[in-house]
Structures are given as structure tokens and as C-alpha cells.
Design goal:
86% helix, mainly alpha, 4 helices
Amino acid sequence: MTARDFVSSDKFNELVRSRWTFSFIMLAILFVMYYGYIFLVALNREFLAKMVGNNITMGTVLFVLVIIGAWLLTVVYVLWANASYDKKVEALKKDLQ
């Protein structure tokens, strides 16, 4: 199998499509989280200034949730890559040999 045949194969195209689809979904979630927080800072400061505890504001809580959310998205991506994507890559490597 030549490189041109491999790149034009259905299996390879499906692999590329699945990776881009998953990556764009994860990117969209991250953008909504991050820019949602930024827009909230710009448009509703009163809400973010509300005290949640003695020394903690809602803005601090949401900021921490954005950071934790980014970490969780990274974990989800790694788990997906290890469980699905890497197996498909290995199968394609075997087809190439």
C-alpha cells in the first residue's frame, strides 16, 4: 500500500474525522466555559461580587470551576485517546505493514 492509497483510505479518513470532531467538541466546551466567564466578568460584575462564604466571592468560585473544568476536559481527551483513538492508530499501522 502506498502512502497515497493509505491517506485516501476510508479507515484513515474516518480516523482523522473522528479526531477532529472530538477535538472541536472539546474546544467548543472550553470556549463556552472560558468566554462565558469572561463575558460574565464584563456584563454582570454584581453577580460575581456576591459573597459565597466569609472571604470568597462567586467570581472566585466560578474561576476555580473554569480551571477545574479545563483539567477535566484534558482528562476526558486523554481517556478518549487512550481508549479509542490510539487503538485505531495501531490498527492502521498494522494495515500499513
